[in-house]
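Exercise 7b. C-alpha coordinates:
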Protein backbone atom coordinates (compact mmCIF):
# COMPACT_ATOMS: atom_id res chain seq x y z
CA UNK A 1 0.00 0.00 0.00
CA UNK A 2 2.78 2.45 1.06
CA UNK A 3 4.83 1.41 -1.96
CA UNK A 4 1.89 2.17 -4.29
CA UNK A 5 1.42 5.56 -2.61
CA UNK A 6 5.04 6.68 -3.20
CA UNK A 7 4.96 5.31 -6.75
CA UNK A 8 1.91 7.48 -7.50
CA UNK A 9 3.59 10.56 -6.02
CA UNK A 10 6.72 9.93 -8.11
CA UNK A 11 4.71 9.56 -11.33
CA UNK A 12 2.77 12.75 -10.59
CA UNK A 13 5.91 14.82 -9.96
CA UNK A 14 7.71 13.39 -12.98
CA UNK A 15 4.82 14.23 -15.32
CA UNK A 16 4.46 17.78 -13.96
CA UNK A 17 7.99 19.06 -13.46
CA UNK A 18 9.25 19.28 -17.08
CA UNK A 19 6.49 21.75 -18.02
CA UNK A 20 7.31 23.97 -15.04
CA UNK A 21 11.03 23.84 -15.84
CA UNK A 22 10.50 24.79 -19.50
CA UNK A 23 8.32 27.75 -18.53
CA UNK A 24 10.93 29.11 -16.16
CA UNK A 25 13.67 28.73 -18.77
CA UNK A 26 11.68 30.64 -21.38
CA UNK A 27 11.03 33.52 -18.98
CA UNK A 28 14.70 33.72 -18.03
CA UNK A 29 15.75 33.68 -21.68
CA UNK A 30 13.38 36.48 -22.54
CA UNK A 31 14.91 38.65 -19.83
CA UNK A 32 18.60 37.84 -19.94
CA UNK A 33 19.38 36.52 -23.39
CA UNK A 34 17.30 38.71 -25.73
CA UNK A 35 19.07 42.01 -24.90
CA UNK A 36 22.49 40.45 -25.61
CA UNK A 37 21.18 39.16 -28.92
CA UNK A 38 20.03 42.69 -29.87
CA UNK A 39 23.45 44.18 -29.11
CA UNK A 40 25.26 41.54 -31.15
CA UNK A 41 22.80 42.04 -34.00
CA UNK A 42 23.30 45.81 -34.00
CA UNK A 43 27.07 45.39 -33.98
CA UNK A 44 26.90 42.83 -36.77
CA UNK A 45 24.79 45.04 -39.01
CA UNK A 46 26.84 48.14 -38.24
CA UNK A 47 30.17 46.51 -39.06
CA UNK A 48 28.73 45.13 -42.30
CA UNK A 49 27.26 48.41 -43.52
CA UNK A 50 28.29 49.35 -47.04
CA UNK A 51 29.18 53.02 -46.64
CA UNK A 52 29.25 53.96 -50.35
CA UNK A 53 32.07 56.41 -49.55
CA UNK A 54 29.87 58.17 -46.98
CA UNK A 55 30.78 58.70 -43.34
CA UNK A 56 28.80 56.28 -41.14
CA UNK A 57 26.72 57.40 -38.16
CA UNK A 58 28.37 56.74 -34.82
CA UNK A 59 27.64 53.30 -33.40
CA UNK A 60 25.70 54.52 -30.34
CA UNK A 61 23.33 56.47 -32.54
CA UNK A 62 22.90 53.57 -34.97
CA UNK A 63 22.44 51.01 -32.20
CA UNK A 64 19.58 53.02 -30.68
CA UNK A 65 18.01 53.48 -34.10
CA UNK A 66 18.34 49.77 -34.87
CA UNK A 67 16.77 48.71 -31.55
CA UNK A 68 13.67 50.83 -32.11
CA UNK A 69 13.47 49.96 -35.80
CA UNK A 70 13.29 46.24 -35.02
CA UNK A 71 10.54 46.73 -32.44
CA UNK A 72 8.50 48.94 -34.76
CA UNK A 73 8.85 46.45 -37.62
CA UNK A 74 7.72 43.60 -35.39
CA UNK A 75 4.73 45.65 -34.22
CA UNK A 76 3.80 46.59 -37.79
CA UNK A 77 4.21 50.31 -37.11
CA UNK A 78 6.66 50.64 -40.01
CA UNK A 79 6.60 48.58 -43.20
CA UNK A 80 9.60 49.42 -45.36
CA UNK A 81 13.09 48.09 -44.70
CA UNK A 82 14.51 51.59 -44.81
CA UNK A 83 15.96 53.35 -41.78
CA UNK A 84 16.51 57.11 -41.74
CA UNK A 85 18.81 58.27 -38.94
CA UNK A 86 19.38 61.88 -37.87
CA UNK A 87 22.05 62.65 -35.27
CA UNK A 88 21.32 66.02 -33.68
CA UNK A 89 24.31 65.69 -31.37
CA UNK A 90 26.43 66.70 -34.36
CA UNK A 91 27.10 70.16 -35.74
CA UNK A 92 24.56 71.37 -38.28
CA UNK A 93 27.57 72.09 -40.49
CA UNK A 94 28.08 68.35 -40.96
CA UNK A 95 26.07 65.82 -42.93
CA UNK A 96 24.12 64.26 -40.08
CA UNK A 97 21.28 62.43 -41.86
CA UNK A 98 21.65 58.90 -43.22
CA UNK A 99 19.24 56.68 -45.13
CA UNK A 100 20.07 52.99 -44.90
CA UNK A 101 18.62 50.15 -46.96
CA UNK A 102 18.31 47.47 -44.29
CA UNK A 103 17.82 44.70 -46.87
CA UNK A 104 21.22 45.25 -48.43
CA UNK A 105 22.76 47.07 -45.41
CA UNK A 106 23.76 49.90 -47.71
CA UNK A 107 23.93 53.63 -46.96
CA UNK A 108 21.96 55.30 -49.74
CA UNK A 109 22.20 58.95 -48.67
CA UNK A 110 24.20 61.07 -46.23
CA UNK A 111 23.32 64.76 -46.26
CA UNK A 112 22.58 67.95 -44.33
CA UNK A 113 19.41 68.38 -42.28
CA UNK A 114 18.10 71.36 -40.32
CA UNK A 115 16.88 71.53 -36.73
CA UNK A 116 14.38 73.95 -35.18
CA UNK A 117 15.49 77.55 -34.68
CA UNK A 118 14.77 77.43 -30.94
CA UNK A 119 16.53 74.10 -30.53
CA UNK A 120 19.89 75.82 -30.84
CA UNK A 121 22.25 77.60 -33.21
CA UNK A 122 24.95 75.45 -34.78
CA UNK A 123 24.17 72.64 -32.33
CA UNK A 124 20.71 71.44 -31.27
CA UNK A 125 20.46 71.32 -27.49
CA UNK A 126 16.77 71.75 -26.62
CA UNK A 127 13.77 69.75 -27.84
CA UNK A 128 10.00 69.93 -27.49
CA UNK A 129 6.72 68.23 -28.39
CA UNK A 130 4.76 71.47 -27.88
CA UNK A 131 3.05 73.41 -30.67
CA UNK A 132 4.62 76.74 -31.66
CA UNK A 133 7.80 75.91 -29.74
CA UNK A 134 9.83 76.08 -32.98
CA UNK A 135 11.90 73.22 -31.58
CA UNK A 136 12.72 69.80 -33.00
CA UNK A 137 11.41 66.63 -31.39
CA UNK A 138 13.53 63.54 -30.80
CA UNK A 139 12.63 59.87 -31.17
CA UNK A 140 11.00 57.50 -33.61
CA UNK A 141 8.63 58.44 -36.41
CA UNK A 142 6.74 56.65 -39.16
CA UNK A 143 6.78 58.49 -42.46
CA UNK A 144 3.37 59.38 -43.81
CA UNK A 145 2.02 60.59 -47.13
CA UNK A 146 3.47 62.99 -49.68
CA UNK A 147 1.75 66.31 -50.35
CA UNK A 148 2.50 69.63 -52.01
CA UNK A 149 2.65 72.60 -49.62
CA UNK A 150 4.30 76.01 -49.34
CA UNK A 151 7.72 74.35 -49.54
CA UNK A 152 6.75 72.24 -52.54
CA UNK A 153 6.73 68.47 -52.33
CA UNK A 154 6.78 67.49 -48.66
CA UNK A 155 6.38 64.44 -46.44
CA UNK A 156 4.21 64.18 -43.33
CA UNK A 157 5.55 62.51 -40.20
CA UNK A 158 3.79 60.66 -37.39
CA UNK A 159 5.57 60.68 -34.06
CA UNK A 160 5.37 57.28 -32.40
CA UNK A 161 6.44 58.20 -28.86
CA UNK A 162 3.78 59.67 -26.59
CA UNK A 163 4.86 62.80 -24.79
CA UNK A 164 8.03 62.98 -26.87
CA UNK A 165 6.98 63.53 -30.50
CA UNK A 166 3.36 62.39 -30.85
CA UNK A 167 2.23 65.94 -31.69
CA UNK A 168 4.33 65.99 -34.86
CA UNK A 169 1.40 65.85 -37.27
CA UNK A 170 -0.62 68.43 -35.34
CA UNK A 171 2.47 70.68 -35.28
CA UNK A 172 2.96 70.21 -39.05
CA UNK A 173 6.44 68.78 -38.48
CA UNK A 174 7.26 67.49 -41.96
CA UNK A 175 10.21 66.86 -44.23
CA UNK A 176 10.54 69.57 -46.87
CA UNK A 177 13.15 71.34 -48.98
CA UNK A 178 14.78 74.59 -47.89
CA UNK A 179 17.26 77.03 -49.45
CA UNK A 180 18.99 77.39 -46.08
CA UNK A 181 20.04 73.72 -46.05
CA UNK A 182 23.13 73.97 -48.21
CA UNK A 183 26.89 74.30 -48.16
CA UNK A 184 26.57 77.82 -49.56
CA UNK A 185 24.45 78.89 -46.60
CA UNK A 186 27.01 77.44 -44.20
CA UNK A 187 29.83 79.31 -45.95
CA UNK A 188 27.94 82.60 -45.71
CA UNK A 189 26.58 82.21 -42.16
CA UNK A 190 29.02 79.82 -40.45
CA UNK A 191 26.15 77.45 -39.70
CA UNK A 192 23.24 75.74 -41.45
CA UNK A 193 19.89 77.50 -41.53
CA UNK A 194 17.14 76.48 -39.11
CA UNK A 195 13.50 75.52 -39.50
CA UNK A 196 10.42 75.88 -37.29
CA UNK A 197 11.07 72.35 -36.05
CA UNK A 198 11.02 70.40 -39.31
CA UNK A 199 13.94 68.22 -40.45
CA UNK A 200 14.39 70.22 -43.65
CA UNK A 201 16.58 68.90 -46.48
CA UNK A 202 18.63 70.33 -49.37
CA UNK A 203 16.60 71.37 -52.40
CA UNK A 204 18.41 69.09 -54.82
CA UNK A 205 17.83 65.92 -52.76
CA UNK A 206 14.44 66.49 -51.16
CA UNK A 207 12.16 65.03 -53.83
CA UNK A 208 14.09 61.82 -54.38
CA UNK A 209 14.60 61.25 -50.67
CA UNK A 210 11.00 61.79 -49.57
CA UNK A 211 9.66 59.75 -52.48
CA UNK A 212 11.90 56.89 -51.39
CA UNK A 213 11.07 56.92 -47.68
CA UNK A 214 7.35 57.83 -47.82
CA UNK A 215 4.58 55.53 -46.57
CA UNK A 216 5.63 53.80 -43.34
CA UNK A 217 9.39 53.80 -43.20
CA UNK A 218 11.24 54.48 -39.94
CA UNK A 219 12.83 57.81 -39.04
CA UNK A 220 14.87 58.21 -35.85
CA UNK A 221 16.12 61.54 -34.51
CA UNK A 222 18.90 61.02 -31.97
CA UNK A 223 20.46 63.15 -29.26
CA UNK A 224 22.11 61.87 -26.06
CA UNK A 225 19.64 63.77 -23.90
CA UNK A 226 19.11 61.69 -20.76
CA UNK A 227 15.50 62.78 -20.37
CA UNK A 228 14.74 61.17 -23.75
CA UNK A 229 16.97 58.11 -23.44
CA UNK A 230 15.51 57.25 -20.03
CA UNK A 231 11.93 57.86 -21.14
CA UNK A 232 11.75 56.10 -24.49
CA UNK A 233 10.08 52.71 -24.34
CA UNK A 234 11.49 51.78 -27.73
CA UNK A 235 15.08 51.80 -26.47
CA UNK A 236 14.48 49.43 -23.54
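Sequence design result:
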Amino acid sequence: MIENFFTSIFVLLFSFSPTLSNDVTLIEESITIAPDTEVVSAESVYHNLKANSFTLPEFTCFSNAFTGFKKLKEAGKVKKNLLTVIDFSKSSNTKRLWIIDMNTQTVLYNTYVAHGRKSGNEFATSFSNVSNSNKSSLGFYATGELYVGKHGKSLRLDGLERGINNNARARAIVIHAADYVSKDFINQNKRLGRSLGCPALPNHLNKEIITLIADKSCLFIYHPTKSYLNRSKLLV
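Instructor comment: The longest strand covers residues 139-149. Helices lie at 2-32, 34-47, 59-75, 183-189, 203-213, 226-229.
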